[in-house]
Amino acid sequence: MIETNCSLKALNTFSIDAKTQILFHLREIKQLVELLPLVKKMRNENKPVLILGAGSNILFCDDFSGLVIKVELLGINISTTANDYILRVGAGENWHQFVTYCIDNDMGGLENLALIPGVMGAAPVQNIGAYGSEFKDFCVALEYIDLETGQLHKLSGDECKFAYRDSIFKQKNMCNALITQVTIKLAKKWQAKNRNVVISEPERLNLSAKKIYDSICQIRAQKLPDPAQTGNAGSFFKNPVVDKKVADKLLNENLGMPYYPQCEDKVKLAAGWLIEKAGLKGRQIGGAAVHQQQALVIINKGNATAQDVINLAELVRQSIKDKFNIELQHEVRFIGKLGETNLAKVIENV
Ligand code: FAD
Ligand code: EPU
Description:
Layout: E1 2-7, E2 19-26, H1 32-44, E3 49-52, E4 58-60, E5 64-71, E6 76-80, E7 84-90, H2 95-104, E8 129-130, E9 133-134, E10 139-146, E11 152-156, E12 177-187, H3 201-205, H4 209-223, E13 231-235, E14 241-243, H5 244-253, E15 259-261, E16 266-269, H6 271-277, E17 284-285, E18 288-290, E19 297-300, H7 306-324, E20 333-336, E21 339-341, H8 343-348
């Protein structure tokens, strides 16, 4: 189905009131015969193309002067091997509903990743992660269509080059890759993997995937705003990964600062802690505010414009640079009139 000159407000969890020239709902693979010539036409006219899931990691900075492809390919196919469940899942399946489906059917493993908004096809793009688990721990393969050539490609999990909030799909040369299907492997022999602080000692003795799922849902509901009620896109910035020397200096100056040692003498810092320490919790510009319960989240208090969010994000970035000499990188993808952009570029153009 194709719509023209339509609103994207309901299609991004920030609830930013932007429009797109064309919106294409991709519900079946056979629609590619219609979609591929349309993409070609847009390219010939120098107009941008955006692949969209549930819009929960996107900031529309402006009206979009091109084609948005909303991926709505559904279907879950389950097979088994001696040790594993193998699930082939359509890119438009809702992530949390899929996790819930697995838990309800005694296929544990994904419980730490419960309640993350979005759809399956977006999960590999930034290798979603929470509470000690990452998408890469479960993804064995995926398929994508190259919108330029129309060819179907298959990648193994290793070939996706997953890293913290990163994958091959963030590389510029992969901007034509529309993920259609993902293959997930869940071990039949379930083992708890959790950095989850909310499980009490008696509960720990009788642990199950369902119990962890329930407590993750509970803790997330307390900390993170529900996009159905308050517009947001989750963590606005990534947690910065710095050299151990830099972290040691900050730790000496800030006793009790949370930190997470990584490999190769790197340390991950908690951006939310830095933002709170800089006194920015609750700080508001126009309709955009730093969330009171989780300073890493920027919320739309009801009528925020994209510019409000951009101005607040810049204030946060600059304050953290000034106070800690740490450069925050935004996790949220910035989409401008002509395609992907970033905070530095949109600030420069004001
Ligand atoms: P979109 O926002 O629509 O798109 C994100 C990116 O993926 C875009 O660049 C888009 O072009 C690309 N994309 C989407 N679909 C496809 C496809 N089929 N093929 C190719 N490219 C595609 N993230 C975490 O990692 N951990 C969390 O704990 C977490 N918590 C969150 C909590 C809240 C309240 C919110 C609002 C967000 C949270 N997020 C979290 C961020 C977000 O949910 C994830 O990044 C999610 O995977 C985005 O899915 P989406 O379908 O909304 O993608
Ligand atoms: N903290 C503060 N103040 C705050 C926020 C956090 O002091 O306002 C401290 C916490 O007390 C804790 C530390 O910072 O010591 C880390 O906080 P938290 O456990 O809430 O996680 P986070 O680092 O802020 C990351 C992910 C989340 C993911 C959670 C849980 C990133 C950028 N964010 O947040 O992912 O759900 O861990 O694992 O890595 C997302 O990507 O959108 C997202 C929500």
